[in-house]
Amino acid sequence: MLNNELCILAQTFFILNILYTLGIYIADFGLRIISIFNAKIKLGTKGRSNTFKVLEAQLSKTTETLWFHCASLGEYEQGLPVFSELRTLYPNHKIVLTFFSPSGYEIRKKTPVADVVTYLPLDTQKNAKRFLDLVNPELTIFVKYDIWPNFLRELKNKKLKAILISASFRENQSFFKWYGRQTKNALFAFEHIFTQNKKSKSLLEQIDYNNVTVSGDTRFDRVANQLLQDNTIDFIETFKQDALCIVIGSSWPEDEKFIVEYINSEATSNTKFIIAPHNIKPSQIQDLKRSVIKRSILFSEKEEVDLSNYQVLILDTIGLLSKVYNYADIAYVGGAVGKTGLHNTLEAAVFGVPIVIGANYEKFPEAQAMIDNKGMISISNQEQLNTAFNDFISDPEKRISFGQQNRSYIEENEGAVIQIIDFLRN
What we know:
Helices cover 49% and strands 15% of the residues. By secondary structure, the chain is of the alpha/beta class.
């Protein structure tokens, strides 16, 4: 009887594996078609086609390596404090960093934390075997929940050490569903999983994965490190002067509709605004600037003007936001008005400023925590945004109180990196 059940189980797993691999090939074909019309997807498909050439050119059979994998830029920022520590601990190893998304690779392809930065090939058995034959990492670190079954199965087959950090799981994910055997089994390739919260640990234990530590989110360590840097920006100081400043971080058109309406109809002349759009395509930047009736200037236009004469500064560049929050008296973080996903609120919180966000933040526990702590306000319409901004502007004590709550929240949740590094040292 037991042999029959094992046979059925094996056959089921074999069928699921075939279906999964077939799905990957179908996805590959679909992406190649879409890439004809979509520049971002084209970057990814072209980049993945060059991965093995890059690895063969940069690595040899005797190269000692570590492998870090991130889905995109957000996961990279989460993993960076750990990556940086390991860069120091393994000075003679080459570090291979892979991304799945162009939004991660294109921005961080020259990061000093890695020696080789490339795209992760699509998750087929053939690709996984070839990739790991070339890289053969002494240690592999995946970040959050970008789980690729064939790569992880090959890691396990080769008995290569792998851990997952800053993991965050929800009940509706495939790992915990009847149809998710592939992804669930892949988790067992990790020697240890470090989760952001107790709920994620509990979900893992329900599928009999028990090598779990609740270490918290490494992003807290990442943003805390920002305070150790020089965060002054001369042109921002020229722009701000002594005015109260509202920084709009990683905004989307849905956010900007509310923000622009507020600037045009409610904002007084002694309040200044810095807008850092998520998308800096020239056409969208120009549309945004045209929609603002107050005196506005782009970052790319700043050299020939006196910035102190302008009320709105639009950053048509990337890489400045984490320092710009240093100049915020109030911060608005974009992404939660629409369905694109809330951006990093911790980058603003570490500077001790009150934060306003949209209403679609249910997948972001840190947002709920800061709302509960009275450090953040969620809005869902124009009237609520106007009220939130006006209250913070007119009530300095409220600004200070909300900001202090956010700074304390960061301090209370630091320490994930130390736990992970201590585990790897032992």
